[in-house]
Description:
The complex is a heterodimer.
Chain A: E1 5-9, H1 14-18, H2 24-33, E2 38-42, H3 43-46, H4 55-67, E3 71-76, H5 91-107, E4 112-115, H6 121-134, E5 137-142, H7 151-163, E6 168-173, H8 196-208, H9 213-222, H10 227-237, H11 258-265, E7 268-275, H12 289-298, E8 304-309, H13 320-337
Parallel strand pairs in A: 1-2, 1-8, 2-3, 3-4, 4-5, 5-6, 6-7, 7-8
Chain B: H1 5-17, E1 28-36, E2 39-47, E3 55-56, E4 60-67, E5 70-71, E6 77-81, E7 84-87, E8 98-99, E9 105-110, E10 118-128, H2 147-150, E11 153-163
Antiparallel strand pairs in B: 1-2, 2-9, 3-8, 4-5, 4-10, 6-7, 6-9, 10-11
Amino acid sequence: xxxxxxxxxxxxxxxxxxxxxxxxxxxxxxxxxxxxxxxxxxxxxxxxxxxxxxxxxxxxxxxxxxxxxxxxxxxxxxxxxxxxxxxxxxxxxxxxxxxxxxxxxxxxxxxxxxxxxxxxxxxxxxxxxxxxxxxxxxxxxxxxxxxxxxxxxxxxxxxxxxxxxxxxxxxxxxxxxxxxxxxxxxxxxxxxxxxxxxxxxxxxxxxxxxxxxxxxxxxxxxxxxxxxxxxxxxxxxxxxxxxxxxxxxxxxxxxxxxxxxxxxxxxxxxxxxxxxxxxxxxxxxxxxxxxxxxxxxxxxxxxxxxxxxxxxxxxxxxxxxxxxxxxxxxxxxxxxxx
Amino acid sequence: xxxxxxxxxxxxxxxxxxxxxxxxxxxxxxxxxxxxxxxxxxxxxxxxxxxxxxxxxxxxxxxxxxxxxxxxxxxxxxxxxxxxxxxxxxxxxxxxxxxxxxxxxxxxxxxxxxxxxxxxxxxxxxxxxxxxxxxxxxxxxxxxxxxxxxxxxxxxxxxxxxxxxxx
Lengths: 338, 167
């Protein structure tokens, strides 16, 4: 049986890298040690000299990949629409920036370039000849709170179907396919301010059943909970959205769009295995990974699953390296068992 | 539970709604006097990177600094990045300058004498647009509805320092 290919996003080491505890070499050494076959780099984070790294730095990076036997897989770029006060980037700027990033990606040996939905489908279409010329795969990340049925992603899907090429595609992030909050969602609250036993039960019910939010709130009161528990349920268990609705938030759907996931798989070479907690028994509550792995196998998915740990969002005390290793083990176990 | 319902609701609300922006590092790195030889010509405030990734200098909409409660006028403030210095009032125009994670950044306040010996409180407030978001469009088209770009983050930090007696 074919084995799943594991990539680790270097983003998982953000805290130690940004605070200077880990160098880039430390990060790559850890990536290898924790079980990654390949790596993803967040370009404006770790590519020194971004957006125009030097020849010297690129050689240094390639040598490190060779030393630690890691495939440079995914080059994660942005659409920097915040750059100018009072206006978005225009199409010429989006194209120039993307082509520039793709050229560097190619020279460093990356296969995939991940961009963002703000690139727009029409600009992506215009970029196709350049992607073909560089023989890369340019993909748009689908991240929560968006889902396959969000209008702009329906437009992207239409483009992928129309072009039907290996050079354009999507990176689905599991934050778009999350059923409920992770187990660690209650970690931020001290034990003496809420009824955690009740909230744990409500969290599981929200994730696994179709019981309405109104009914779940009634249940909190019936079980002896009070207003403090209801505030937590409404703001942390029933939604992952954060005030302001900025990018990167999560949307919980008891029934995520499995059909959309299956449909988009044919345009996928790389999946963002976003998660916030994997327990010691290799379960990742909140995301129905067994079902998604089953779909991947049924569809003959041959790409990578990238381990993308973001657990610090809910619990700062967890060991992120332990969490990364657990996620890779979980994915391999599921791949063999499901 | 020992705490009253009112107390608990207050704690829960503050955990959920008063979350400060997630920063990996404290914005103020250090505060020092700026010396030329033995003459003190101002104050240097080291600033840590403000995101999990590098940022565009042009996303810095404003920097406000007060020393011991007194606000410093914008015209005295300069931003130094990787050895180059820019007036704080000009930062937004520099869409070509990228502030990488490993870059060295500081705000320089040109005020002869700098900080006198003794205790001081330095407060910094930085207004920063996000570098990216879900909103999109061509140029100005639809930009007024782009919530994230029209609501800059308000990043605050303060540091209490003691300046030793001058030699």
